[in-house]
Amino acid sequence: MSRGTAIHSERYVWPLVYSLAWLVCAYIALELTQGEDGIAAVWPSSGIFVASLLHLGRSGRLATTVGVGIASLLANYVGGLSLLACFGYTVANLAEGWLVFYLMGGEKSRGKLLARPMNLIRFAASAIFVAMLSAGVAGVLSAKFDLDFLTSWATTVGLGMLIVAPFILFLVQSDEGRKRLVSVRTVWALMLVAVASLAAFGQAQVPLLFLPVLAISIATAALGLSGAALALLVVAVIGSVLTVYDTGPVSGYFPLQGQQVLFLQVYFLGLLVSAMPVALMLAQRQRDLVKLSTSNRFLTSAEKAAKVGHWRYAPSDGAVYLSSEARRMLGEDARPHTVADIADLFHDDDRKRVAHVLLQSLATGVPFVFEARIPGPQGEMFDTECRGEVEWADDPQKIAIFGTMMDITDRANTMRELANARAHAEREAEETRLLAETDHLTGIANRRKILSDLERTVLDGRARSEKVAIAMVDVDHFKSINDRFGHEAGDRTLQQLSSILSDRFADAGMVGRFGGEEFLIVTRGLGASELDTRCTALRDFLCTYAWPVEGLSELTLSIGIAELGEGASETDLLNAADKALYFAKRGGRNRSVVFEGNLIRV
Prior knowledge:
By secondary structure, the chain is an alpha+beta fold. It folds into four domains: 1-173, Arp2/3 complex 21 kDa subunit ARPC3; 175-305, no CATH class; 307-412, PAS domain (Beta-Lactamase, 2-Layer Sandwich), CATH 3.30.450; 438-601, Reverse transcriptase/Diguanylate cyclase domain (Alpha-Beta Plaits, 2-Layer Sandwich), CATH 3.30.70.270. 64% of the residues lie in helices and 12% in strands. The strands form two sheets. Strands 7-8-6-9-10-11 form a six-stranded mixed β-sheet, with helices on both faces. It is rod-shaped and about 155 Å long.
């Protein structure tokens, strides 16, 4: 229905329908009067007007009020009442409806479901209060103050509200209620109610007034709240009509008309009170089932979107419940019955650990969380994060364990890719660092690296009170080697020398190429004299070494040695070694010179 059509129905169609229904029901009730002074046993029109006010919006309520006012004047005038009485009854009819409307919350009452127990109780209390008040107003306006008139007015108006208004509101407020009434089941239920009512009120030989109670109970169970309200309406109509014609037991039991009216009203009220609580409970149950179904549907959708399944194991159930998302990961054929069966669904490498965690949680009640792999039904492998807790009970047999399993395959793959990328980046960074710290020709530490090592060695030596000594090595007459044998031969010579230096001083420290044909040896734990001894042994070794350059029979070294003194820095140490090297070259090369204080020892 479009918005324009809905507004048109609200302003014109519904007010016209309610007004005509009010007029027809009022006319029939007056014609079939069972009360004294023209007061009907049940006044359905009051319920129709109240239902219209609770159903429609502001414009619809005003239009219906005008329509019902005209219908009330017309019905009462046709019924033979004086003009003053017509106006008095009309004012009472309109006032009672609006008063119930405001007692229900006024504008806020629109859309308030009477199918909810507290709303229905509030409505019943409002209807009873207004019915009594309306009787007083009608008595004042019509100048009738006898008890029979006031009682008859209050009971007929009250029953009309209590029986008719809920039925109408159940229909207009509940799509489910309307759907239930448009069914074959409704036809059979109403036929049963009608037959029971005819049997109860159509003869007086056998007392069968209990049959409508049974029929209403069956209609309530079959059709719910709307069915109960409709069944009550059917019983009220049939009972009232048959009693009018003196065919039922009521006229036989009670000779006076007032007594018959009072009995019918009490009987209808008893039916209402006995049927409505059951109908309300059934309606609440139906709403709870719908809510539960909706919640389960949302849960299934949420689990599917989040890739989270759940399971529950209770020893008393004899089987493990698996949600649809859990079965997606475990397979539709998975039928676990024990904790061991649950663990068997996981990867072989994780199975023992999973079983231990679940059994420990079941024994101690401590919640669990773990990650494990699950072989999928299609050969895939799911990485899962499993969480759960134990549901405690007084009976050990009723203890259960509830768990969830989240498919974290994408996250795990991403983490693995990130780990691989990180390892690759670290390898590249290490390679870059090595390239930045390694001399490209000799493969040993370059100048920046060896100076960094020297700085760190000096700091550590001071902290640990260890000796630190260095040797600055220079190849004698290296330029002549390049000139005589070529630069390639010179490079091979430097490479071989670097290898020899690294091997002979690996246990004492580090070796780096300082620049050109110069090398720097950094040692820890050796003094200058000890390092000098090792350098002398090195020079002796080189005297007999067979170089990989044809024609190169001898290669000598000039070495400057210095030891870290108190308060000296690595710069002071380098300067001392450089001075010692200078004296070694100046003294004729092929020698070691030690710098001691300000003295040079060859």
